[in-house]
Amino acid sequence: MRVMLLLMLMLMACLPSAGALELSSRHHPVGVKVPSTMTLPQGMQADDKGRLTCSTCHGIDKLEDRKREDIEEIRRRHADDFLRGGPWQKRDDFCFQCHDEKPYQRLNIHAQLDERGKLREENCKYCHREVPDREHPPKRRELKLRLPVDRICLGCHLKTPHLNALEHSRKPEEKMRQRIREAEKTHKVILPLGDHGQVTCVTCHSPHEKGVIDEGHPAGRQAADRSVEEGPDYQPSRWSPVYQADKEARLMELERKSGEPVELDYKRLAGEVLVRLPAADGSLCRACHQFND
Ligand code: HEC
Ligand code: HEC
Ligand code: HEC
Ligand code: HEC
Ligand code: HEC
Ligand code: HEC
């Protein structure tokens, strides 16, 4: 009991003196000078010494003198001005008014051709030690990849970038391997397996922007009705009927085993990019799976 009292006294001694509103340690720095390279947007002003103040970002009169317990109410009542120019849907959009967006953005190394269609060779070198000859593509063994093919996408991408990616990193049975070879011939594509014969990211995905490798070459063929900058597009919908039957059977088996309902949020593809065959119409899946449609 006495320890508790002591603790409470110590805590109270640490409380801020009345008046100034204490900010969380993760709050944006205040009082810092706006560098000459930064332009503040209209409606946001630094003080007469060129420093950030509360009212640079917050459109609330004397926010620094308000009580902590009133903040939530103030925020609700002034949704459009708690952060000036709001309400903001994405935090980043607020930040990028002052900060340069570029250094915060991840480099999309799949954007491999510039506006004039010229190769961005520095992007090739993320994965290749030397820029490969596009006219006469070298064999896999001579490609000089910086990492084994089944690891080269990780680091930038998670192992689980989407549903089912992890479940796919397995070696197909001989019957499926036969099917893959036939599909490669029929569609004139490559569906390369990993160093241990397993399905990997590049089995389904091309790492290259369309046009980097000639489309007449099997490695150059891909489904791309969107740009790499846009990425794929989804429309909320039921599963595509092509693999619905297969999926349902497997799901029921899973449910039976786990004794719990399994719910998956499948999305319908409305636009594709960087896939070797379209998945939207089932072609990609059918290169390996047989469905009883
Ligand atoms: C560079 C812009 C900027 C400046 C300058 C600034 N803030 Fe903020 N403040 C923010 C942002 C961004 C948030 C987060 C808003 C959210 O989460 O909705 C925030 C949140 C807050 C909050 C609510 C969250 C919390 O920490 O309790 C308070 C209170 C607050 N600011 C007070 C102040 C005060 C007082 C000052 C001046 C001493 C100040 N701010 C200066 C950008 C700024
Ligand atoms: C009104 C302009 C303005 C807005 C809006 C703004 N910042 Fe800043 N920010 C600054 C200034 C000025 C500095 C200090 C100078 C510098 O580091 O460039 C700074 C510094 C920083 C720093 C470096 C802090 C440090 O300790 O070195 C980070 C990180 C940062 N801001 C992130 C953000 C984020 C995240 C947001 C959005 C929530 C944001 N900023 C919104 C103006 C702004
Ligand atoms: C994200 C990693 C990555 C980047 C970036 C990358 N490649 Fe590749 N590249 C690979 C992988 C993995 C393979 C082997 C699988 C394949 O053929 O698609 C490959 C294969 C190739 C091949 C041989 C194709 C074949 O199988 O016949 C050529 C040619 C090639 N890359 C050229 C390039 C050029 C040119 C660039 C730059 C514009 C580039 N690559 C950028 C990962 C990458
Ligand atoms: C240096 C980092 C980096 C590496 C390595 C990398 N990627 Fe990406 N990738 C990105 C970025 C950035 C995007 C843009 C979307 C995002 O931010 O997730 C992207 C997007 C994609 C997309 C979605 C299409 C698009 O344009 O948005 C696919 C598919 C993809 N990558 C496949 C791969 C595959 C397969 C590999 C390995 C051969 C690979 N990536 C290696 C950074 C990387
Ligand atoms: C069995 C085939 C298959 C495998 C294996 C696979 N993917 Fe995908 N991936 C797809 C399909 C299909 C899409 C949907 C987009 C499309 O069709 O353009 C997709 C989408 C993506 C996207 C875009 C996600 C988004 O919502 O923007 C990224 C990034 C991606 N894959 C990365 C990877 C990486 C990294 C691996 C390996 C760890 C991998 N994929 C393995 C088939 C596959
Ligand atoms: C390159 C061959 C290949 C492609 C392309 C492919 N799969 Fe697979 N798929 C496999 C392998 C290998 C397995 C794991 C072993 C098995 O189930 O036979 C698998 C497993 C699955 C599973 C079971 C996962 C689990 O949890 O057990 C589903 C569902 C599935 N695939 C759906 C799809 C769909 C949908 C597509 C098209 C977007 C697709 N596959 C494309 C080879 C492929």
Describe the protein's architecture and organization.
With 293 residues, the protein is mainly alpha-helical. The longest helix has 18 residues, at 241-258. It is built from nine helices and two strands. The relative contact order is 0.08. The chain has a domain at 156-286. It is 25% helix and 3% strand. Residues 153, 157, 159, 161-162, 165, 168, 199, 201, 203-205, 231-232, 269, 272-273, 275, 279, 284 line the site of one heme C.
Provide a brief overview of the structure.
The protein is built from nine helices and two strands.
Give the arrangement of secondary structure elements.
Elements: H1 2-14, H2 54-57, H3 71-77, H4 91-95, H5 121-124, H6 174-187, H7 201-204, E1 233-236, H8 241-258, E2 267-271, H9 283-286
Antiparallel strand pairs: 1-2
This protein binds heme C (6 copies).
Give the key terms.
Doubled CXXCH motif domain-containing protein, single chain, 293 residues, 2 strands, two-stranded antiparallel ribbon, 9 helices, signal, Multihaem_cyt_sf, binds heme C, Multiheme_Cytochr_ET
Strand content: under 5%
Low-confidence stretches: 1-18, 261-266
The assigned structural class equals mainly alpha
For the report, how would you describe the main beta sheet?
A: 2 strands, antiparallel
What is the end-to-end distance?
73 Å
Order of helices and strands: HHHHHHHEHEH
Give helix % range: 10-25%
Q: What ligand species are in this complex?
A: heme C
Query: What average pLDDT do the residues reach?
Result: 82
Organism: Thiolapillus brandeum
InterPro entries: Multihaem_cyt_sf, Multiheme_Cytochr_ET
Keywords: Signal
Protein name: Doubled CXXCH motif domain-containing protein
